[in-house]
Amino acid sequence: MVLYYDETKYKQIDEISKRRVLEYGNQLMCTHMIFDKTSDSVELHHHSQEQSTYILKGKFKFFIEDKEYVVGPGDSLFFPSNVPHGCIVLEAGSELLDSFSPIREDFL
Hints:
single chain, mainly beta, three-stranded antiparallel beta sheet, 0% helix
């Protein structure tokens, strides 16, 4: 399957972030996230999907259960199924690539 960039659109998630769903199948989904502003608080969340996050640009502080990680371009994180996690955006214009398995039906 080929998905051309100009055939997809970003969805505004909240006042600081937007998401573009990239390619996906039955078991794997990739999304591109852009954060226009920094944030100063985090709401931990969890989901049944496993998640892999690759930092494309900027800087984040991620929380995975009770641990904190400051990450930047080229760093990656893995979130097991149902493990609480979240992040604070430390630099405006930060971007990341998220992959989920199985797919996040709620993103479609």
